[in-house]
User: What shape does this take?
Amino acid sequence: MTAFIDTMVFMIVMMMAISVTVTYNQADRGPDIGPDDVLRDIGGIEVRISDLTGIEDDSLVYLSDLMALSLTQETDVDDYLKSILDTVFGVNRYHLSFKYGDLSGSIGAEYDYYTSQDSRTIPVSIGGSIDVMLSIL
Assistant: This one.
């Protein structure tokens, strides 16, 4: 009889330990970030011009302005966006496409299926707007 009670107590303790471990691991993951969150943030990120271009100017501009500039000039904007998206979604688990006027560009791998996607039109300070679409696996 005592062996049965010992077994039951052991099982209860193990179940409690497992449930605490599972709960703790879920809390470590943090909130789920979707493409809508990232696109909303891209419209508000300010960077120094000299950090992502060859222009010797420390003025702050919006990342969306430099995304439009990257379609006509050589910049490090693609690498900067790639490092952000790789950190948030994983390496090549996304596809970011953007269009400014007749010019367009993209970052990431193209797949036939995505679990989530969002698009946003972000104003550009030199005029017009840039259409951005982010799809994630």
Notes: The two ends are 54 Å apart (CA to CA).
